[in-house]
């Protein structure tokens, strides 16, 4: 049997261990401080985007309400005018009817 603890095997094992440690350090996730900073930055970005979206939705709703209010006001004014026109017509017809009744009564 050969001796497995030869200097070459020890050197190769040591080199493999160092290479593994170096690879682990290079491929390891960020440090805790870096990770917290990244999370903080992403949270700030998300907050800003949410704020922007909120203001955009608020502006859109406000414009929609303004348009709706304008349509309601126009429709209301139109309905009021039509009501007044119908009321005036009814009064004229009532007056004409009374006049006709008086005329028939006088003729009778």
Structure description:
The protein starts with 6 loop residues before the first helix and ends with a helix. The protein is mainly α and 108 residues long. The mean pLDDT is 85. The chain has 2 helices and no strands.
Question: Which residues form runs of ≥5 with pLDDT under 50?
Answer: none
Helix content: over 70%
Mean of residue pLDDT values:
85
CA distance, first residue to last residue: 149 Å
Gyration radius over CA: 45 Å
* Shape designation: rod-shaped
Total strands: 0
Classify the secondary structure makeup into a structural class: mainly alpha
What is the count of DSSP helices, taking H or I runs of 4+ residues? 2
Query: How would a textbook summarize the main sheet?
Result: none
In terms of DSSP E residues, the strand content is under 5%
Order of helices and strands: HH
Summarize this structure briefly.
With 108 residues, the protein is mainly α. It has helices at 7-27, 32-107.
Characteristics:
rod-shaped; mainly alpha; 108 residues
């Amino acid at each position: 049997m050969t001796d497995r603890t030869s200097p070459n095997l020890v050197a190769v094992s040591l080199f493999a261990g160092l290479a593994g440690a170096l690879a682990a350090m290079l491929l390891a996730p960020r440090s805790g401080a870096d990770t917290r900073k990244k999370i903080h930055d992403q949270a700030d970005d998300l907050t800003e985007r949410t704020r922007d979206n909120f203001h955009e939705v608020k502006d859109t709703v406000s414009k929609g309400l303004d348009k709706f209010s304008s349509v309601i006001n126009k429709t209301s004014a139109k309905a009021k005018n039509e009501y007044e026109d119908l009321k005036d017509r009814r009064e004229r017809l009532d007056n004409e009817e009374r006049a006709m009744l008086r005329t028939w009564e006088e003729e009778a």
